[in-house]
Amino acid sequence: MCGIVGVLGTHEVSPIIVEALKRLEYRGYDSAGIATINDGHLDRRRAVGKLINLSDLLVHDPLPGKSGIGHTRWATHGAPSVTNAHPHRAGSVAMVHNGIIENFRELRDDLIAKGVVFETETDSEIVPKLTQHLMDGGMGPIEAATKTLSYLEGAFALCFLFDGEDDLIFAARKGSPLAIGHGEGEMFVGSDAIALAPMTDKITYLEEGDSAVVTRAGVQIFDSSGRLANRPVKAIKMDNARVEKAGHKHFMAKEIAEQPVVMGDAITHYLKGAPPQIALPDAGLDLTAFDRVTMVACGTAHLACLTAKYWLERLSGLPVEVDVASEFRYREPPIPARTLAIFVSQSGETADTLAALRFCQGKADKIVAVVNVPESSIARESDLVLPIHAGIEIGVASTKAFTCQLSVLVMLALKAALERGHMPVEAVQTHLTTLRSLPGMMNAALTLSDDIQAIATKLAEARDVLFLGRGPMYPLALEGALKLKEISYIHAEGYASGELKHGPIALVDKQVPVIVMAPRDALFDKTVSNMQEVMARGGKVVLITDSDGARLAGDGTWKTLIMPMVPDLFAPILYAVPAQLLAYHTAVAKGTDVDQPRNLAKSVTVE
Ligand code: F6R
Prior knowledge:
It is a single chain. This protein has 20 helices and 27 strands. It is α/β, with parallel strands linked by helices. It has an eight-stranded antiparallel beta sheet. Strands 5-6-7-8-12-13-14 form a seven-stranded antiparallel beta sheet. Strands 19-18-20-21-22 form a five-stranded parallel beta sheet, with helices on both faces. It is 37% helix and 24% strand. The structure holds fructose -6-phosphate. Residues 298-301, 345-347, 350, 353, 397-398, 482, 486, 603-604 line the site of fructose -6-phosphate.
């Protein structure tokens, strides 16, 4: 993971790099560092922990210079420490790295045998050491850095700065994304366009295996075989306003609150006219051309896929297989003819999801990306991109991206139902008309925030929490548990309600809150029976339901939250709100770092 940035500027670059790193901190926040060319010489500052520690250090110990590189780290090899922090330096070479150099041990042993001394526990340090070693052998900086790339196995985005070279950054990518930004007499390098947004909107994406020689006059890009490559400059539209907290205490709170708006955006992008019709971008998708669907993703995006499986199978009759990307990519499953492969990812950069996508290239009939970042690697390598239009998501715990993913996927399922003749056109239109009113229902659900906060003060004392749901509410139970554990550090598990008595009910006692997500749907009575089984064993139940459900469920719950009435089809989208708010308020009550929980990073670009 890690975020990297490089600037050849006309002003002091340290503040510019810190600003860019702030926008990349979602990639990791274990340590941060900057190197610049100061008076012709390389110098660097590094600090453990969040970027603010580096900013503070720079106040007391400034780092002048108009050329520089910076890094924010998510530790893979070696604990977070100043020594292990990037930029790594070897003689006249400074370098920042995102990814993992898989063969670093053998390369390091080889250099140690030649007398080179290593200072860190990282895989990354091999890169500048090797480059400096090659320079000691007589190569110039560009030749040595290019040669170094040929030794490296694994995934990397790299940015080099060289002592005495005030107008040169060497950059390269293999497996991890990297973008070049074009300014007026200035040039930039960044892990993504978001990092570079305040400086430039003109971006060139490096392709797999590319390296780049960047000077203030421009960039020369070489492909993996060393030939000069012509990569397009794209104008990228970035919405800076959405990177602010807008009066909220945390990005997560802001992102939960803005769901009605962004979900409205997502719906408007796909639903046209009255009665509404679903319009997919580009040439669209012929959903009669497939016999099965395979969906692959990680984390919350995987849970969006699991929900979509219920929708697609029930509405369109298409069999759907859902996998976590880290398993799928190595399982090498057969991909029969007429398979539609769908990859869901907020960032579009998740390494496992990208690898799974590449596995399907040439095997699946069509590859569709459901992403929030349309310029991402996953989007660029797909046949069709369905953007979710959630806007930049900063909180590490995914919220608005989840509900926007669900909104796009439910539209896709309805389109499949229509095209495959599984549902009459009037029924589809009725659903789509209701979907247009879902943002309004979501506003109503958000008004439960105070009630949920009161419950959360008690939930914060729990050691374990269970989430139960049936049918399409089961993946949401998994999502509720994932949200709670990642930001409050409370152990939580999601179960299919009917599965509880097959083992997990042994966990239930007076200390274990059980959150039951049960709108009054066709499966409600069964879920309520499971809830009774929990209450009979002293379990403290929080029932999240609608007014009909509350009336029918009877007494005995610890708390009942009454949600707006919503048609069954859209319940998983609406009920995501209380699940998110429960996790959020519990984390706030516990005083954890809500937006940047420990050990996590927003974009997982290593496997
Ligand atoms: C959980 C969360 C993660 C991501 C997962 C996939 O709140 O955010 O589980 O969903 O890392 O990330 P993307 O969607 O960027 O592929």
